Amino acid sequence: MSRQPDILFLLPDQLRPDFLGCYGAGFLKTPHIDALAEAGLRYETCISPSPICVPARASMLTGQSAMGCGVMDNLHWPRPDRPAMGLRTWPDHLASAGYATAAIGKMHFYPWDISEGFDTRVIAEDKRHIHIRDDYDAALRAAGLRKVHAREQEGYVDGKGASISDLPEPYQVDRWVAGQAAEAIRAADPDRPLAMMVGFPGPHCPYDPPREALDSIDPASLPAPLPRTAESATHHAAFVASYKRGWADIDYSDLTDAHVRGIRHHYAALVERLDQDVGTIIAALRESGRLDNTIVIFASDHGDYLGDFGLVGKTYFHEPAIRVPLIVADFRAPAPGVEARAVSLLDLYPSFLDWAGVEVPCHARGRRLGDIDRDRIITGATVHGMMARGLGWKLVRYRNGTVALFDLTRDPQEQQNRIGDQPEIQAVLDHALTLAVLDGFAAAHADKKVAEAQAGPDHDFYGRGWQRPYPAPIN
């Protein structure tokens, strides 16, 4: 058995922390995820700086901010020649350090079947990408089944995305991913360290558990959504227009309390099933004899409004969209605890490398999870806007012209926009945003740097015909 720790990264899609027992949810049962928290460190406040699927994932993979890697929405992906610059993904670094690297499930790469440093991939992409011919699609076809658009599912239109999946149990997508991950763990070489990322397509919409999964959740026990505000209303038209497009084909212009209860009911059922899938994977680690040398990381790419502020999904910078669970259970020395200081998903990249004994490169914009501080300001951006969160406050600036400042200590539900009446804290957060934007610009254009212009007098740069190296290496 390798002395380097195995690293298992479990990443559900669109999971908010307050729908987990270990984060205080009493209306559902998540014993396997709770057990991870009881064996490790649970981070009370983990922030997704860019709360859209692809920007969040590209940032975690590369260690760069969304601005730095140039991935600001779901139609972007980092430049393919970035290894020539010295920009390597965390699995690529770990593979060079001797790890067997495997990605199981949803990764959201473009093209969808590239490796990005993983030696092995078993692919089950987004529930919305029904035309991708991935490994999950092949398994369905071999069983006489197929992927379907959610509008073919029972209840989808009337339930505003809360539907029923009638697939047989082994072919429910998260269950299939868990089975593939467990099989890969059992088949892994015991003499090589293993770094595995498991990407669950759920509980992302469509909110489509099998019918029987709903029985364990009492809809009356579910928390009510946060009220709409004047600030959140400025995003509503764009939100409705987005979901009317073909990928979702839902009209959220008339989202009622009953709709929200249904969505939350189905979402909670998916989370309970996700917990069972986590149990399957941890059991495989235990049965293979690897668990005692494994660091298990459980997180998500962003949250889900689930009706908060009259919104569904993510995209904007309210707490339900940017807050994600983060649990790090090091089974080499289990030690339960809770960390109250805020951390960022960008912190995973340097932490993965540090745990594997790999030097953290200069382009990494996160901090190792052991190096966080209480006064940190976490910044983030997408194509829709920018955020600076720290010192008990949050400043957001959106491309639609909306600007908001929230007192997260006295108003954690972000009901009162304090913009204009706290000039000192606003100035501090605005300065942090300015630095983040400038850093993002510099990182995004590092390929164009001509360092040779400052070379010594004997450098070929000063002669005719010198060829500029492109892209420029990071240093």
TrEMBL record:
GO molecular function, one term: sulfuric ester hydrolase activity
Entry keyword set: Hydrolase, Metal-binding, Transferase
Pfam families xrefs: Sulfatase
Domain of life: Bacteria
One cellular-component annotation, GO: cytoplasm
Keyword Metal-binding among UniProt keywords: yes
Domain named Sulfatase N-terminal: residues: 5-358
InterPro entries associated with the record: Alkaline_phosphatase_core_sf (IPR017850), Sulfatase_CS (IPR024607), Sulfatase_N (IPR000917)
Coiled-coil region: none
Family as reported in the entry's similarity comment: Belongs to the sulfatase family.
Protein name (database record): Sulfatase-like hydrolase/transferase
Species per Swiss-Prot/TrEMBL record: Oceanomicrobium pacificus
Lineage: Bacteria, Pseudomonadati, Pseudomonadota, Alphaproteobacteria, Rhodobacterales
